[in-house]
Protein 1
Amino acid sequence: MYKITATELLDKSDVKQIPAIFHDNFLEFLVKVNQFRMLFGKPMSPTSFFRSQSKQIAIYKNKAKKKEFPFTDGVFDASKVPMGSVHMKAAACDFADPHGEIGKWIMAHKNILPKLGLYVENPTKTKGWFHIQSIAPASGNHIFNP
Ligand SMILES: [Zn+2]
């Protein structure tokens, strides 16, 4: 059974080395996501892992251009960019899920999330991708709304 490797995650990050303060998060995430993947039993393709502050701002600037994110008086406002994303702590990854297969599977196997210490965005709200993280959201819910 193929594992999700550190290299694979780094390839889907905007840095090639995770900052030292997030190393422990990175290693813990890698172990947990592979436990998840073993239970799921099928390949999983990462699409977005670690995001630096500048990458997060760039993503939201792009959303603003497409009018998916509010401007203030027509000007992009970096202070409105959510900087609490767990992607920025090397503890969250998005996986391609074009047919919602991972999402449907987890909804039928919710009990594994507290066992593994993992948290997912409600897959009914993330069409085409699947977000999983190893740090609890503010709500503490294992399935939470993005
Ligand atoms: Zn995500």
Protein 2
Amino acid sequence: MPGVQRDIVIVGAASSIGIKPYDDGSPRRLDRAPRALRDQDLVRRLGARDIGDVSPPAYRDLVRPPGRVRNEPELARYLRTLARPVREAAEGGAFVLALGGDCSSVLGCLLGVQRAAGRVGLVYLDAHSDFATPATSRTGSAASMGLALAVGRGDTPLAHLATQGPLVHPDDAVLVGRRDAAEPWYGQDALTELGVLDLDAAALRRLGPAAAAHQARERVTRPGVDGFWIHLDADLVDPAELPAVDSPLAGGPRLDDVARLLEPLVRHPAALGLELTIYDPSLDPDRHCAAGARPGGYIYVYGSATMVRALLAADLVDELLLTIEPIILGGGKTIFADDGKAIPFMLESTVKASTGAQVCRYARAR
Ligand SMILES: [Mn+2]
């Protein structure tokens, strides 16, 4: 941003109370994400001021209350608490970087910046619409309703956190990058009906990241809108690059395209801040996903089986990410040379995408 340097304030929204537990019934550990991200030297690299974490009350609704949001009163209390430091930082003119946490933290951030700035717009970057209501959500996770609750949709106090009206008017909101067409319970049918601009994954591919960012920015910087907030769910990034999320969906943009999408947004003077959600360090034991956000940390090479085979033969591969698509008929190429030499790899993690593809990460055993 030429000539303008803004302070960055980092706050940890270290909470998982807005999202369903793991399959074993224990609460998710997204509360560990702010620490894992700070461990990547984030504060120093951004020259930011770190004001620490806002921690939530204990997880109560391990079993979903029928037709309701899990941990509803706890979450309302938590979001109001999170809003305070966000408001203070925004009032001081800083760009707020909130490290989540689950997607419900967008509501606390919006509450904070709305109090500081007035009428706020919202750019919601997510693989999912998060437009379910407590009545229609499959999980009872407020995280599956983040955008809906922000624009006042749903019969719950969480849709009415602001003193008057919704946190964001639907006309001031844009959803970018959703690819959840096969999962109608995210409430996507109501997006256009309510007036939210819906730039889905196909639109994002067609426009390219720079033009999509431009359209989103037009929407949230119209006269009368005093500033805007950016929500970034880590699951926007293709799971081949960033598998450490709870509901991965194949077919997303790569990290460098996400950076191209973000840059014109975060650099705009009306940008109030950004919250990063859903990154789960317990699905990323060696922190390679966290490190992926770090320039120079890794070199990623995408290529055909032939290219992978050549790199493997030269023993230049530290890690293999294989996206395995189920097929009924057909063949394939082997990625290993047929010289009989073993190159040992260990399976580190495996994530099933909603399309049925299996994303497996192997590390070279040395
Ligand atoms: Mn999502």
Protein 3
Amino acid sequence: MAESTEMDYKSLPKIELHAHLNGSLSTSCLTELYHMKYPNTDDPPSHINGYKILDKFIELKDCFERFKYAHDLTDTPKRLKRATEIIINECHDDGVVYLEIRTTPRATEHMTKEVYLSTICEAIIECHEKEPKNPIVKLIPSFDRSKGVNDARDTLDVVLNVREKFPGMIVGIDLSGNPENTNFPDFKPLLQEARNAGLKLTLHCAETAGTEEENMEMLEFGMDRMGHGTFMDESPDTWLTLREKKIPVECCITSNLKCATVPDITKHHMQKLLHAEHPVVICTDDYGVFDTSLSKEIQLCAKTFNLSRETIQEISLNSVRFSFASTTEKTRLEALIRDFFTQSG
Ligand SMILES: [Zn+2]
């Protein structure tokens, strides 16, 4: 088995399938947005310190609190657009060739949900026009469970409208947010409607312990990809159903460690999934909050789980397969990855 530790992870063409917009603001991005919003003030330590999780570990529910610092700075079209541009440019610098950004459309005093989504779509188009080498970028609007089903209803209407204006860009729906005191079945009709309208589904599932019943409901409902799936093996039934349905799992190691849903990297469920030859993809979740990058995450997985070059190539190609890109885009991305492994082999 060839060693993978010496691989140039930055040059590896990477596929990012799980990145929340408001969780992906780097320190320089936060600083720039802060100065746009609060000119003539000093550096923004409270925004940076409040947002980023460096060495310490926090509870998942506290993690959702971190987003308020980002929401404060992305509350106008101008700053939201700039945030999107910076994320795309930073991902490009990290060697990401395909990026799916997810975000909950948010009405603020400066914009409607429709403007929120359109602004991101416009930023994506402009980035590509300025620098065609930038990653292919798609948008996945999220239903935030904590905001309730009425908010999700409204979001879906907006999503279906905006999708018409930006063909090929809005490719799926994500279900995320703090799951506490919410019920998955409430969201089922809307998710089904989204599916019927041709949108793919990626659902955060089993992020916390003790939700076996809901996990099974979600598995039975079905999804194109699963976010985290941390506690799928809590019950033999859910584990078996996941395996049978072969639903790809988006693994975000640093996120799980810093939110303390996984106690130790050697106990991360990715190992069990790999061992079972279950499809996995490696993602960042919130590279700004967790102070990471996709290159770092892939390197961390390779080192921790002793992945061979062949396995990394397979995971990379699978990421293309499980992405919500078009067939033509998938062919191009696959070729990029194969070329990398041929040339660096
Ligand atoms: Zn997530």
Protein 4
Amino acid sequence: MLPDLSNISTVLLDMDGTLLDLHFDDFFWNQYLHRRYAQIHGVPTSDAATFISRRLDAAVGSLNWYCTDYWSSEFNLDILKLKRELVHLIRYRTGTRAFLDCLAETQLQVILVTNAHPDVLALKHDETGLLGHIPNRVTSHDYGAPKESPEFWKQLRAAHEFDPAEALLIDDSIPVLTAARCYGIGITLGISQPNSSGPSGSADGFFQVDDLSTLNPLLAGHITSQGPGTRPWHQDQPGALDPGLHEGATDRG
Ligand SMILES: [Mg+2]
């Protein structure tokens, strides 16, 4: 079952596992990093896997869990450099491009809201051009609080003009959907298979979708003939495209 989207005015979009295939992230943290850590530090892969998994588990839900600087320090290696070794796995989920094209024909305010570290956001933009489709973007590192925290939503509301009750959030994380709902985000929508190579999950208590383009017919009432360039939030917006994210990313790390 899908929600009624006829009364929304803002769309908040998660990145990893929602717009982009979570396979890259799952494979990196749960397999590739184990192997590379073992090679770099000269330890058995099984020992590396145990060590890394324990450290990751201890940080779940905190901003550190999403911080490449933190993990580079914890594991004494360059996380961003290792991620670049797998850029061929960074890709859109099925239906994302058609969904973003549809949103571009509406007057809806669209904001990317991600827990990804800014350097990882830049890396993913370089591979996909994602930010060219979404004028506004926020990473929780800007606010010092992950999306799982009420503090993130308070700061998002303070920084952007939007009515939470008229907002749609699409996110593959149940803790994030729960925090957003508690804050008052009107419609919270989960993703049934964030990793194209992984199992389908269930988001009990939340609306759920897999191919985002199945939402396009529900946005029909928001499509205008004015085109995206007329959107008032398209100009002079603090969260509008940062040239650094376009051009400097390949020099990072
Ligand atoms: Mg996600």
